[in-house]
Automatic annotation (TrEMBL):
It holds the Pfam family His_Phos_1. It comes from Paenibacillus pseudetheri. It is an enzyme of class 5 (isomerase). Its EC number is 5.4.2.-. One of its GO terms (molecular function) is isomerase activity. Keywords: Isomerase. This is Phosphoglycerate mutase GpmB. The keyword Isomerase applies. InterPro entries: His_Pase_superF_clade-1 (IPR013078), His_PPase_superfam (IPR029033), PGM_Phosphatase (IPR050275). The keyword Isomerase applies.
Length: 192
């Protein structure tokens, strides 16, 4: 049985401003660092064997806080779990997009990564990490949209309509070749 804790990074200034981040390499803000500290404290009461992160700064910073608290090293930076590419909308708010391209902007080809491409990329990266460490307990720090896309592919019946909270953990378990989702979008550590 392989257990994976999927973690969304801590908050950034762009999260608060409602800006599409995509591949933009934004740092955590002060609240995001504090969220990571609270999550790391929660995880310190559990046993984890490996820690992976997206190669984007906000995920790496979250993973570094966890690694320090848990006394472990980051096993690898994985481009496959990098946030979905937001194309021309990166750095924009909904209001910016409407002003620039009109209210039907979602129907335009603005270079966004397709949902299907992100589902395949993210779920394959998670499968690859699970195959590399069978029977282990693995943390993966990533991003909200790519995690939800990956979960849609791994669990077609799972309702992923609720956006993932910053530093939330979603726990999935692989037994033989079957995945089960044990916990979705849990951010209990932030309610202290």
């Amino acid at each position: 049985m392989t257990t994976i804790g999927l973690i969304r990074h801590g908050s950034t200034a762009w999260n608060k401003e409602g800006r599409a981040q995509g591949h933009t390499d934004n740092p955590l803000d002060a609240e995001g660092v504090q969220q990571a500290v609270l999550l790391a404290e929660r995880l310190s009461t559990e046993q984890w064997d490996y820690l992976y992160s997206s190669d984007l700064l906000r995920a790496r910073q979250t993973a570094e806080v966890i690694a320090t608290r848990l006394g472990m090293k980051i096993a690898g930076l994985v481009p496959g779990i990098r946030e979905m590419n937001a194309g021309q909308i990166e750095g924009t708010t909904e209001q910016d997009r409407v002003e620039r391209w009109g209210s039907e902007w979602k129907k335009l080809d603005l270079g966004l990564e397709s949902p299907e491409a992100s589902e395949i990329r993210g779920s394959q990266a998670i499968e690859d990490i699970a195959e590399k460490h069978p029977g282990s307990r693995i943390l993966i720090v990533s991003h909200g949209a790519i995690l939800r896309s990956s979960l849609r592919r791994l669990f077609p019946e799972l309702n992923v309509s609720v956006l993932l909270s910053n530093t939330s953990i979603t726990r999935i378990i692989k037994s033989d070749s079957t995945w089960n989702c044990e916990l979705y979008n849990c951010a209990q550590h932030l309610k202290i």
